[in-house]
Amino acid sequence: MTVASSEKGAVRLDETQYRAGDGPCLASIREQIVIHLPDISREHRWPDYAASALAEGVGSSLSVPLILEGEAEAGLNMYSTRSHGFSGEDIERVESYSYHASKALRLAVRISQLAEAKNHLTAALESRTVIDLAAGAIMAQNRCSQESAMKILKIASNTRNAKLRDVAASVVASLSRDARVQTHFDA
């Protein structure tokens, strides 16, 4: 997916690559190499891309991978309306920029992953609290072990085709006047 673009034509070129499953940006990301197409009219590796680029008025392109490590992948595309629109110095600048952008983007991806993991862990702990409360209530009512109480909850979950935490929440709600269970994870 294209996250950001300065022009709609660039998005259309990205979409051409996505449809074909290949192109200079995708190859750059996949192979982790810089791909410079100095003259699009002479490009034969990606004919659909070349045709679309020429239709968009692109004469040359530069695709640089952003090194993110892990599951995330990204690339930076630069376009020129002229063939041979990028000098060696331009390419070096874009490579330097992509190196620094990779560091910032890598940090942003990591922060996002950690926030998502925290949210999943908090939800799991909150569900566990409700399940433990329900098991405790079942233990008190039936004078049974925790293992037996958990079996009762699981049987009810399977019979009702409902999630265990939802069955547990209904047990807790039936015993209290407030259906909400406050946990120490709540703000």
Draw up the topology in text:
Layout (H helix, E strand, L loop, with lengths): L7 H13 L3 H8 L3 E3 L9 H9 L4 E7 L7 E7 L7 H55 L3 H15 L3 H12 L12
Antiparallel strand pairs: 1-2, 2-3
Helix pairs in contact: 1-3, 4-5, 4-6, 5-6
Fold and architecture overview:
The protein is mainly alpha-helical and 187 residues long. It folds into two domains: 8-86, 2-Layer Sandwich (Beta-Lactamase); 115-175, Orthogonal Bundle (Arc Repressor Mutant, subunit A). Helix content is 60%, strand content 9%. The chain has helices spanning 8-20, 24-31, 47-55, 88-142, 146-160, 164-175, and strands at residues 35-37, 60-66, 74-80. It has a three-stranded antiparallel sheet, sandwiched between helices. A hairpin with a 7-residue loop joins strand 2 (60-66) and strand 3. The protein is elongated and about 80 Å long. It starts with 7 loop residues before the first helix and ends in a 12-residue tail after the last helix. The model has no long low-confidence stretch (mean pLDDT 87).
Pick out the low-confidence regions.
Answer: none
Task: From the alpha carbons, calculate the radius of gyration and give it in angstroms.
Answer: 28 Å
CATH third-level topology of the largest domain: Beta-Lactamase
The CATH superfamily name of the largest domain is GAF domain
Strand residue percentage: 5-15%
How many strands?
3
CATH class of the largest domain: Alpha Beta
